[in-house]
Specification:
The complex is a heterodimer of chains A (62) and B (326).
Chain A: H1 2-30, E1 45-46, E2 50-53
Chain B: E1 5-8, E2 16-17, E3 28-31, E4 34-37, E5 45-50, E6 64-69, H1 83-86, H2 100-109, E7 114-117, H3 126-138, E8 142-147, H4 153-160, E9 165-169, H5 175-182, H6 187-198, E10 202-209, H7 217-230, E11 237-241, H8 256-268, E12 274-277, E13 287-288, E14 295-300, E15 303-307, E16 309-310, E17 313-314
Parallel strand pairs in B: 6-7, 7-8, 8-9, 9-10, 10-11, 11-12
Antiparallel strand pairs in B: 1-2, 3-4, 5-6, 13-14, 14-15, 16-17
Helix pairs in contact in B: 2-3, 4-6, 7-8
The chains are: A mainly alpha (62), B alpha/beta (326).
């Protein structure tokens, strides 16, 4: 009886651990900019002070 | 040159970018044949700082500056004290959404008198800085640039039109130092200092002294001489202490004595206001009247405990003190 209880308790803690790890992983996965590869944290705002360059056949610099 | 290339004309590096290529600053990219700024409205750092932290000692002393920065930089100083944000790609930073209007609203709500574009370098988030600055001016806030001043003259003049104060980093009075240690050039920086002064910006200069690299007193004397000759003795100069970071972790922090000697050298060369930063040296953070030598502003760290300036002049002898005081 006592042994059964102990196994149950151990299973319960293992389950809690697995759930905690899962939540941690999911939070990290969906964190904006995590892993440094997401571009959603960037803008594509027009910059100033630049010029377009074309080949000589296109008439040179614009 | 094949079609689709663009050249960034913002800073003296003038990067030529093929399709999808980024500039040396990491934040300006050739996107479908047009140059775009990746960090517009995406600061990675936002703080409310004492204006003395910038450091700006002659600019609304005792007030706060709403301070923000984005990732990236167009210089790559081996001693960078903010390398965690300046030497990374913007997508590797934790950025927030903060459009120019929201930035101004936050600054007002938090009781700041100014907005400081700082930590990395506002030059690389030029458009963001400019747009906030326009709105900030309308809202009665002042604008402060904390910059290395490595920018082409045309965009710099335009930015100075909406700028009230600037702390410009003069990293050393040596072209060789700029090329070897910072991956930049000194001449455009000297020009930026002159242009800012000419356009009425309240300029202060910072020189971070790195042991063995730019602590030569002869060089410091020449730097002070250049300041004296080209802009005048009334512009504050800050000598700042280096801490071993980024690629120069093998060097020791700047000894206080080195900073004290540098200050004495610059004062001896004829500059009126020379300060020491990043370390407590008694009296070296105070503002003294260049005429009667009395203490006008006493500083302990970022705490300002006395103000002896009335209507921009020394309250004891009436000498005008350069700065923005009210």
């Amino acid at each position: 009886m006592e042994k059964k209880k102990s196994i149950k308790r151990r299973k319960f803690f293992v389950l809690i651990g697995v759930v905690a790890l899962g939540i941690g992983w999911l939070r990290n996965y969906f964190k904006p900019g995590s892993g440094g590869k997401s571009r959603s944290c960037l803008s594509l705002h027009p910059a100033r002070f630049y010029q377009k360059l074309f080949s000589a056949s296109d008439g040179g610099k614009q | 040159m094949s079609k689709g290339y663009v050249q960034c004309l913002l800073c003296p590096k003038q990067c030529v970018l093929g399709p999808e290529e980024r500039g040396d600053c990491r934040v300006r990219i050739n996107y479908q044949g047009d140059l775009v700024a990746l960090t517009y409205g995406k600061p990675c750092t936002v703080h409310k700082d004492p204006v003395e932290k910038k450091p700006m000692f002659h600019f609304l002393p005792g007030t706060y500056a709403f301070s923000l920065a984005t990732a990236g930089c167009n210089l790559h100083c081996k001693f960078c004290q903010n390398w965690e944000i300046s030497q990374i790609n913007p997508e590797d930073a934790k950025n927030m959404d903060l459009n120019p209007k929201a930035a101004v609203d936050y600054a007002l709500k938090s009781g700041c008198r100014s907005i400081a574009y700082t930590y990395s370098d506002p030059i690389i988030f030029y458009e963001y800085t400019y747009d906030i600055s326009v709105l900030a001016r309308k809202a009665g806030l002042k604008n402060i640039l904390v910059t290395a001043g490595f920018i082409n003259e045309k965009p710099w003049r335009k930015l100075c039109e909406v700028t009230d104060g600037a702390n410009i980093d003069l990293k050393a009075y040596s072209e060789d130092f700029y090329r070897r240690i910072c991956n930049g050039q000194m001449e455009p920086v000297l020009n930026a200092i002159k242009v800012a002064v000419e356009m009425g910006v309240a300029v202060e200069i910072t020189n971070l002294i790195v042991p063995t690299l730019n602590d030569d007193l002869e060089m410091i004397k020449r730097m002070a001489g250049w300041i004296l000759e080209n802009i005048g003795p009334e512009y504050p100069l800050h000598f700042s202490r280096f801490f071993p970071l980024y690629q120069l972790r093998g060097l020791p922090p700047t000894p206080s004595e080195t900073l004290v000697r540098a200050r004495e050298t610059a004062l001896g060369a004829g500059l009126d206001y020379v300060y020491i930063g990043n370390v407590e040296v008694e009296g070296a953070g105070n503002t003294y009247c260049p005429n009667c030598k009395k203490t006008l502003i006493e500083r302990q760290g970022y705490q300002v405990s006395e103000l002896g300036i009335i209507n921009g002049a020394c309250k004891f002898c009436g000498t005008q003190i350069k700065g923005v005081w009210g």
